Amino acid sequence: MDSDDAHGVPLILPMNFLEKAEGSQPLLLHTFLLLAQHGVNGRIPIALLRESIARDQSLLKKYELKANDAILAEEKHMPLYEDVLSRKHHLIAGGAAQNTARGAQYILPPKSVFYIGCVGRDEYADLLRSACDKAGLRVEYRVDESQPTGKCGVLINGSDRSLCTHLAAANEYKLEHLKSAEIWPLVQKAKVYYVGGFHVTVCPPAIMALAEESAAHEEKIFIMNLSAPFIPQFFKKPLDETSPYWDYLIGNETEAMAWAEAEGAEELKGQGVKEIAAYMANLPKKVESRKRIVVITQGTDPTVVAVQGEKEVKEFAVEAIEKEKLFDTNGAGDAFAGGFVAGVVEGKSLEESVDMGKWLAKLSIQELGPQYVSLPPFPSHPPFTFTFPLPLALLSPSPPPPSPNSSFLDNHHPN
Length: 415
Known about the structure:
The chain is an alpha/beta fold. It contains 13 helices and 17 strands. Helix 3 (96-107) packs across helix 12 (332-345), helix 7 runs parallel beside helix 9 and helix 12 (332-345) runs antiparallel to helix 13. The chain is globular.
């Protein structure tokens, strides 16, 4: 995924849950669209509905947008979305957690994923429902009557991307929806909860409700994603409150370093990713019977995995992909998380789960965003090898790959 120079731009991502329902069908639920901010070295997440249009400088000029930027929409930008829809474009259901959910759904049985968020009562919500339905996702939205569905316009020109986000209803999810008679029973059935770190900026009590629910049951798993460097930097207190409940923590090296700096522990000064991961893994834990596992991706460098109570910090090599096969790295880290979490849901080993994450992410960068629409079927046994042609000529032009040696984990979060 591309990194931009813009800072302090609020964006939105959902929070997720995994459920294994009656009859042992694995289910992934994610709830809420949360407010996030693009921080230093952070990745640009996409909103509920992403509208992409390529190589059109006229829209940049018309709406006074920079070629490579990410901003919140102002009043003057509101006609942009209809303008994009009137031209050749792609509509992609986005958001880091939703990318992860669709990735897990790609691997898990049909109709095994639930999405719970907040939309407006408009055609954008209908488009989003349609996109999720095609992906096999069941959606249970809270509909806000006063705000339209959140969306992000993406204008692509060569290697530049200009993102213009309108938060709208995505910022209007309520804890009452999570605790409602329709939704909370689904949460209670859940066996695994996956929560994006961005949610600490919106409703920490919702995270804690899930964390406490998981801690109250021996068989339930709580997974947290750091999501962006600014989360530990500026929302340290609510993030720290969740840490005793982490069974799994996922992040990238920039986020891990930001966490270590914010933590301020003397033993973390000058330490590398492996030492930081080990420190995170051995933080105090609510449910001591489950060892905490910390997974830190590092671009083309090995993925680091630390397990609570174990001295050895494991490393998993990241295979480079040929330059000519790279198409779009946006959302690759989300695809990795989707594959990894699917492995956790299915009870796979740590090694298998990491392999599943790498397999799905490597596939996702060979299409326009993590759509999972032109991919080969998931193999039943590792190693996860594949060869397939993608109809690249049918897709809008994408930025050139960053380098011949780039990997699908070059960036951890979506555009």
